[in-house]
Design brief:
alpha+beta, 4-stranded mixed β-sheet, 16% strand
Amino acid sequence: MSKKLIKLIKKGMKDKLIHRGVKETVKAVRKGKAGLVVIAADISPIDVLSHLPILCEEKNVPYIYVKSRAEVGEACKTKRPTSCVLIQTPGKDSAKVKKSFDRCAELVKAKNQYVD
């Protein structure tokens, strides 16, 4: 599942559907943008991201943890590791990305019961 999410991030970067980093992700979730949040599990100190899962639950945005922030950063086409990413729900014009996004969102929701 982690590999599918990384591929989805790469596809999303091409279509500019990605909000990268803690500040951008929190800002987008607060504004009510629909999507899928991917959080890296190897962040230290964890206090930097501890508010994000709670915010996602309040706004009903699915989120999931992946192992490495280096993988997330690489998928975002940057040399810097990235701690979290919001993948926006793609529009109707990009069918392949929409299909991939729907599949990943379905898997995330099946794995975690906190999202409706």
